[in-house]
Design brief:
The chain is α/β, with parallel strands linked by helices. Helix content is 29%, strand content 27%. It has 6 helices and 15 strands. It binds ribulose-5-phosphate (5RP).
Length: 232
Amino acid sequence: MDADTQKLRAAERALDYVKRGMKLGLGTGSTAAKFVDLVGARVKDGLNILCVPTSEATRKQAEALGIPLATLDDEPSLDLTVDGADQLDEQLRLIKGGGGALLREKIVAAASQRMVVIADAGKLVDVLGAFPLPVEIDRFGIRATRARVEDAAREAGCDGPIALRNIDGQNFVSDGGNYILDCSFSRIADPVKLGLALSIVPGVVEHGLFVDLCDAAIVAGPDGIQIIGEGP
Ligand code: 5RP
């Protein structure tokens, strides 16, 4: 079973967590997009649900599928968010932001009673860090901010190249109008320490370490599905 099919299997299983009348956060990325498609099909079949998207891309997809949408200002408290991740560990700590939506994803997850991650098995790791950690920064003073991010990371035991995200020769700009630093630390031994250190750097808007936010992960592999954390 290839990674794409695994993503679909995880997305299908996440429907078990979705109940009638829920306020639901919709994640971003290729795995979350499969879940959004499935929610769209359920809505067509009469499921009554109100959704808050975590990005403009997801908003457009959900809108096209006829999924009833609200903003977090309309509905500041959600029942559940289902989202993908770039990496996760057995303690349900995540790296997110590969798709550049980490700020809204974290705000929506924090506003949700539960967060469920859906992923293919290749993303489950013993130690986070092989996937470069995205850090969203303000566009002002990026060289200074990058230097402070380097210092903070070093103090938290992390070292490695930090690159300003660039797509087709242009700096990547998030939905919030910010830039993203991709931090290749290889190994993040203490995600809590690193997250706290990054949070206090002036210019850092948000980082892609999600700690104490995820309640369950549905990880689909070639041999089936593993659920870490809470069941439906
Ligand atoms: C976007 C994210 C995504 O959830 C993450 O990048 C995983 O994406 P995919 O499902 O395409 O592998 O954090 O900001």
